[in-house]
Amino acid sequence: MKCPVCGEEVDMFDICDSCEWQNNGPKENETDLEGPNKMTLKQAREAYKKSRKVI
């Protein structure tokens, strides 16, 4: 599957080697804080585009 933040190939529920986002599975919500990540998917995408750390 593709990482929902950066688009790199990653296994489901693994941490992306490129952006360090931990995938929550195939149905991630953009605006809810879910799983081990400390930012929403939307916040992570914005941070990645600005070359900021994804947490």
Put the structure in a nutshell.
The protein is mostly helical. The chain has one helix at residues 41-49. The chain has one domain.
Task: Provide the descriptors you would attach to this structure in a database record.
single chain, 55 residues, mainly alpha, 1 helix, 16% helix, Cys_rich_CPCC, Cysteine-rich CPCC domain-containing protein
Walkthrough of the structure:
With 55 residues, the chain is an all-alpha fold. 16% of the residues lie in helices and 0% in strands. The termini are far apart. 20% of the residues are buried.
Q: Write down how many β-strands occur, each being a DSSP E stretch of 2 or more residues.
A: 0
Q: Give the SSE order as H and E letters.
A: H
How many individual helices?
1
Distance between the termini: 20 Å
Q: How does the SSE layout of this entry go?
A:
Layout: H1 41-49
